[in-house]
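Record type: monomer structure entry
Structure origin: computed from sequence
Chain ID: A
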Amino acid sequence: MRSSNPVFSRRGFSRDNGYAGFNTAPQAGGNPYAQAPANPYATNPYAQQDTQYGAPQAPTRSGVMTIDDVVTRTAMTLGTVVAGAVVAWLALPVDQANIGKSYGIAIGAGLVAFVLAMIQSFKRKPVPALILGYAALEGVFLGVISSAVTSYVSAGAVPQAVLGTMAVFAGVLIAYKTRLIRVNRRFVGFVMAAAIGFVLLMLVNMLFSVFGGGDGLGFRSGGLGILFGIIGIILGACFLAIDFKQVEDGITYGAPREESWLAAFGLTMTLVWIYMEALRLISILQGND
């Protein structure tokens, strides 16, 4: 399955660049709307397939991705983000004497993190060093931004954003497991189209802000800022559901264990997106943007 985040496109588990679990063929002699997903890992010696009925079975040999692999690597990646944020918070103060230097380092770290994420997105296989490097630098960026919000907007904004991100994660996971959210090709297409439009609007707003001063077109302040903050969080929640689908498909079809790094990479980027949107929304609600 090829999945994407609101900011970065990344290669998913499918070897043919398709959507594992979305490449479907109608089942013979049954409901014409019922579809059986094709296994993109049919050539994987560790993936088990019922040859009589074509139904995927849970992998029974070592070397395939498991939920424990995903949890472990996601914890490592998120832990690296948190560590980078803590170091930046302590070492890069945003007081009047150091704010320029701190912002400069944060922006530089964010740009390098973007480059590392893009390099990983276009690689056929996950590179843990790139993923952890992205996580560390993204953490530096988040640490400085979070410190600035705490100092100049609201002391409680960061804990609220963290709790909000955790709540979104738990809510989407419950909705996905209970099938209140069903991730299919139409769902992915709609989310991707909405995300592209959202990102383009934010880029235009940023350009107007840089060259015209102020808040550009006003998409990040006042009533419009609140609206777009909510939309951003909803998009992040939708991408979480897609990430969960990707993990589920990878485990079902016997993806190689190394691809659990891709799952960790995607989940981390999505959670960073949700946190940033939540922090921005809280800043608007509690401060003067």
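Annotation 1: The two ends are 39 Å apart (CA to CA).
Annotation 2: Helices lie at 67-91, 99-121, 128-152, 157-177, 185-212, 222-252, 260-286.
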